[in-house]
Amino acid sequence: MIKKVFVFSMACSVLMAGCQSEVVSEENKKPTKTDTIVSPSSQPAALPATVQPSQPPQSEIPILSKTVGLGDTQEEMEKYYGKNENTANETIHTYKQKSIVVMYADKVATNITLAFESTNKPRWKMEDALAESQNYIPVDAVKVKEYKLDEERTVVQYVSKQLAERLKEYYDFGKTLGNEDEPGTFIVILKQDQKGVFASIMAPGSKP
């Protein structure tokens, strides 16, 4: 079943990444005060009002990105962004007034589109759109290359060990089809017109 779903996901990929500790000291085997050290949680980059998420939830399954994004579970996506707005389609879900579009395979996000044109800031500068996209990709992602596919699309390719582990079956199945991509390879496609970037698409693989 998962192979069929992944084939569909690969075919559709272009359509559309607090800590607390206690220090206890002992003197002559008598307990003393316990000091609690809490490190401040990092905050995601500011988004338009229609896209602004809540605080990332705690989960037994690690969240790969700064917010919740590529490779994360449907459960965590919906804790973070709210209920799916596109109930008519079981494969493509939308959140935050359709400004975030997600495709799942076995309840894991394998394609994410940030639809800037559905927000109160419909066009972004290239560097700002790329910086915003990085909130939705694995934090261990390493940039491989960047190139201009055509006048409307710029592609940035990354590789992530965490994504390779989370989508292991996806990449393993790709190899059976002759795909030579390194496991964990994914791309961000920035779509633009003369006014600026209006969408960012994130998906596994190297082909736009």
TrEMBL record:
Keyword Signal: yes
Domain of life of the source: Bacteria
Keyword annotations: Signal
UniProt cross-references to PROSITE patterns, sorted A to Z: PROKAR_LIPOPROTEIN (PS51257)
Ranges for region Disordered: 25-60
Compositionally biased tracts (Polar residues): 34-44
N-terminal signal peptide: 1-17
Name of this chain's protein: Lipoprotein
